[in-house]
Amino acid sequence: MKLPRRQFLHLAASAFATPAVARRAFADAYPRRPVRLIVGFTPAGGNDIIARLMGQWLTERLGQTFVIENRPGAGTNIAAELVINSPPDGYTLFVTNLSNAINATLYEKLNFDFMRDMLPVAGIAQAPAVLALNSSVPARTVAEFIAHAKANPGRINMGSAGIGSTGHLAGELFKMMAGVNMIHVPYRGNAPALTDLIAGQIEVLFPSLGSSIEYVKTGRLRALAVTDATRSDALPDLPTVAETLPGYQAASFYGLGAPRNTPPPVVEVLNEAVNAGLADPKLKARLTNLGSVLLPGPPATFGQLIADETEKWGKVIRFAGIKAQ
């Protein structure tokens, strides 16, 4: 049974319910050894980039090494389950992302309930994808690409980091709203999909802006638009998909999660450290240069975002009839 949204948000809010004196005493003792940051994707993707930037900041801020561990597979479910089954002591954390909201509907049977078993700790950033083409595709605007796709139904290969990935759902939403038929080609991660897009093995991809921005700037990929509701400060001349398809919006999010029952003082230490990083001019600049919109705030705010995105993408998955494999 799914955890009711109200109960989920109550769990997030309770992270700060411990008396202040007890919180501070516990906080002064954490962390005393290295902390694992588990990423559910291969290296070089948006999740990995965000994790390494924040991991470096937390290492410097808290005085212990935050070690990035990539555990790809099953749309991040392998990594999520690893963290959920870890001791709730703050030494194994999860880089939470949009895939977790998607998976709640995509998978009929999981060994966990993400909204019940993973405690939201802190939001980090929200980031759009880009509608990116191989340079051989004869389209330079979203409207031209839609026309090209309609003229070639079932002949355009659309890659993604895997079934149910952020890029897959962004593409399915695009197909639904534009009325086009493209063949989905799932990869095991964003990096190999980007490699094949550049090589011309696939024609279109919806990679995260953070993982593709350098390819776009150097002209190795042709970006037509960003998938957020507003233009990105990182690529201000690039239009949004919504300027052609009103109402289209698909942005990933990144944050930290911890096993349920992680002590509130640990959550508080981590939340304060992440928020301090988001206010630090150097780290803030590095994140915004990747096209990210920062997500400072308490755990409950991040929990609300996860709940909202779970509901939104559940509707898309059911409409498109997408099934996990």
Features:
single chain; alpha/beta; globular; D-Maltodextrin-Binding Protein, domain 2; 13 helices; 11 strands; 6-stranded mixed sheet; 2 domains; 45% helix
What would your notes on this structure say?
This protein is an alpha/beta fold. The protein folds into 2 domains: 5-126 and 252-320, D-Maltodextrin-Binding Protein, domain 2 (3-Layer(aba) Sandwich); 130-243, Periplasmic binding protein-like II (D-Maltodextrin-Binding Protein, domain 2, 3-Layer(aba) Sandwich), CATH 3.40.190.10. 45% of the residues lie in helices and 18% in strands. The chain contains 13 helices and 11 strands. It has a 6-stranded mixed β-sheet, with helices on both faces. Strands 7-6-8-5-9 form a 5-stranded mixed β-sheet, sandwiched between helices. Helix 1 (5-13) packs antiparallel against helix 13, helix 2 (20-28) crosses helix 11 and helix 8 crosses helix 13. The longest helix has 22 residues, at 299-320.
Strand content of the residues, in percent? Answer: 15-25%
Number of helices: 13
Characterize the main sheet. Answer: 6 strands, mixed
| Helical coverage, percent range | 40-55%
Report the C-alpha radius of gyration, rounded: 19 Å
CATH topology of the largest domain: D-Maltodextrin-Binding Protein, domain 2
CATH architecture of the largest domain: 3-Layer(aba) Sandwich
Stretches with pLDDT under 50, minimum 5 residues: none
Q: What would the average pLDDT be, to the nearest integer? A: 91
- How far apart the termini lie comes to 22 Å
CATH C-level class of the largest domain = Alpha Beta
Broad structural category: alpha/beta
